[in-house]
Design brief:
Elements: E1 2-5, E2 9-11, E3 14-17, H1 19-22, E4 30-36, E5 39-49, E6 52-54, H2 67-76, E7 87-88, E8 98-101
Antiparallel strand pairs: 1-2, 1-8, 3-4, 3-7, 4-5, 5-6
Bound molecules: zinc ion.
Amino acid sequence: MKLFCEDCGELDYILLDGYTIGDRVLEGVMFVFILKKGNVVLADKCVFYDNKFTTWKQDSYLRTLNDKYWLKQIKSVSSPDPEIDLFQCPICNDSDIITIKEK
Ligand SMILES: [Zn+2]
């Protein structure tokens, strides 16, 4: 299995705009998802902005939020069946061209 963008090719990770889950609470927070054992899962360094990856706890804004609640919401889009149209390619930012392909 691999993550694949029709325009950019194989991807190591895909992004989910927090806005789709938390509306204005998570607006602009980009969550990082990877493929692990065939499942789309939230990465350990789950947040990407300012061109770097960071964890929920290390982020000064996110750690003010109820992480248990929000992580549950975030995980609900990725398992058991990922709503793949919600995710964006980190290279072209397009969201309707990502697929999960068999090897
Ligand atoms: Zn792309």
